[in-house]
From TrEMBL:
One of its GO terms (cellular component) is membrane. Keywords: Oxidoreductase. It comes from the Bacteria. CDD domains: SDR_c. The lineage of its organism: Bacteria, Bacillati, Cyanobacteriota, Cyanophyceae, Oculatellales. This is Short-chain dehydrogenase. It holds the Pfam family adh_short.
Length: 259
């Protein structure tokens, strides 16, 4: 397989579009998500349109055994990934005290543990080969506290901190680590997070998942450390460094308070 890229959460949204962007650049793909029917139709589309090889794997990445089995399967297939894209993630708009613990535990497992575990599994091979890319999808949520999506925002702050740290460790190895921070983006995210009505997402001209994917792929290829999508989001992320954390929490609370 040509310069294979592993993409988690490739059945919809940003991951789906990242698969298209990577295939257009000639990369073979290994795609994982739970809805394998969607992965299989994407595989058929990309193999026909782009002539690249695409492998799919149905798996729930909140499960540690599944992650290990997926890694072992890629090893058995002889896949030496050029890049790992940890994209799968979700949020949930609710007061924390009323949160569904099972859902929030799954969020922590997916947004934090799966991303960390897969990075740990694939990184040594990349370092040994002297070449590789890690692209971890965080969010502009990484820069501030997020009342009513407290666990989600905190999980993305983890992704940013973790990725910055390993990027520094990886200097000189030929492997880079990039954090992609999209702002609100058209995808299934809002519906899954029960956040469609939140003021945060009531913006005109929300970027498409394709725009974010194109930007993220380019940042990964450049080995950029942090890639915040969009001029307004870049300015807002800079602004978060100047304002008190309480002010940031108050503003986000106003934007996300459920009706
Ligand atoms: N859209 C936004 O406004 C926005 C903004 C900032 C950051 N982000 C981040 O961007 C990333 C992609 O989200 P998106 O906007 O593209 O949302 P999306 O359309 O809901 O896509 C999420 C993807 O994650 C996969 N996934 C969810 N749970 C999974 C699990 N347990 N195991 C394996 N795969 C799982 C889903 O596939 P299956 O359901 O088939 O498993 C789907 O392919 C996420 O990390 C999200 O936090 C999104």
């Amino acid at each position: 397989m040509a310069k294979p890229i592993i993409i988690t959460g490739a059945s919809s949204g940003i991951g789906y579009e990242l698969a298209k962007v990577c295939a257009a650049q000639g990369h073979g793909l290994v795609l994982i998500a739970r809805r394998e029917d969607l992965l299989l139709s994407l595989k058929a589309e990309l193999e026909t349109a782009r002539g690249v090889q695409v492998l799919t794997y149905r798996g729930d990445l909140t499960d540690a055994d599944t992650r290990q089995q997926f890694f072992d399967w890629t090893q058995a297939q002889g896949i030496a990934p050029y890049a790992l894209v940890n994209n799968a993630g979700f949020g949930d708009l609710t007061a924390f005290a009323e949160a569904d613990w099972a859902k929030h535990n799954a969020m922590l497992q997916l947004n934090i543990v799966a991303l960390t575990h897969l990075t740990r599994l694939y990184l040594p091979g990349m370092i040994a080969r002297g070449q590789g890319r890690i692209l971890n999808v965080a969010s502009t949520a990484a820069f501030l506290p997020g009342p009513y999506m407290a666990v989600y925002y905190a999980s993305k702050a983890y992704v940013l901190s973790f990725t910055d740290a390993i990027a520094a460790e990886l200097e000189g190895t030929g492997v880079t680590a990039t954090t992609l921070c999209p702002g609100p983006t058209e995808s299934e995210f809002q519906e899954r997070a029960a956040a469609k009505d939140a003021k945060l997402f009531a913006i005109d001209n929300m970027p498409t998942a394709a725009e974010v994917a194109t930007y993220g792929y380019a940042a990964m290829e450049k080995g950029q450390r942090t890639a915040v999508h969009g001029t307004v989001n870049k300015l807002l992320s800079l602004g978060t460094r100047l304002l008190p954390r309480k002010t940031l929490a108050d503003v986000t609370k106003g934007l996300q308070k459920p009706a």
